[in-house]
C-alpha cells in the first residue's frame, strides 16, 4: 500500500510539472501571399467550409479549444497540426509547384469522398465540422473549378 501511495504522488507531480512544458502554437497570419486565395478563387461559402472543417490542421492559423491547455493533450494536438500542415497547408498553397497544387486539390476531393477528412478524432470534439452532403457538393464543385484554373497555368 505504501508503494502505491508513492507511485500516485509521483504521477501527480509529473502531471503538474508537464503542465509547464507547452508546445508552440500555430498562430501565423490568417492570410499572406502564399495563401490559397492567391491561386484560386475561394468563395465565402467555400471559405466557411474550409474554416469549420479544415483550417485548424491545414493552415498556419489554428483556433485552439480549451482543452489545449491540458498536457499531454497540447502535445498531441501540436503534432496533429504539424502532420496536417505537412500534408496540405492552405496558407502555403500558392508556394507549391503547379503539379503539387493539382495533386493536392484532387486529394481534397478524394479524402472527403472517402470519409477520411475531416478526421474522426477531430469530429469528436468539433461536431460542427461534420460536412453535410450539400457542403461536400459545394467543395467538390470548387475543387473541379480550381483544377481547371491551376491546370491553365501549365499551358
Describe this structure in words.
The protein is mostly helical and 155 residues long. It has one domain (25-152). Helix content is 55%, strand content 0%. The longest helix is centred in the last third of the chain and has 20 residues, at 133-152. The protein is elongated, with a radius of gyration of 19 Å.
What is the element layout, followed by pairings?
Blueprint: H1 2-18, H2 44-53, H3 55-58, H4 73-87, H5 98-113, H6 120-123, H7 133-152
Helix pairs in contact: 5-7
Rg over alpha carbons: 19 Å
Could you tell me the strand content as a percent range? under 5%
Give me the count of strands.
Answer: 0
Oligomer: single chain
Order of helices and strands: HHHHHHH
Task: Name the helicity range.
Answer: 55-70%
Number of helices: 7
Q: Structural class, please?
A: mainly alpha
Task: Catalogue the unreliable spans.
Answer: none
Nearest-integer average pLDDT: 90
Summed up, the domain count is 1
Q: Biggest sheet, open or closed, and with what strands and sense?
A: none
Distance between the termini: 75 Å
The gross shape turns out to be elongated
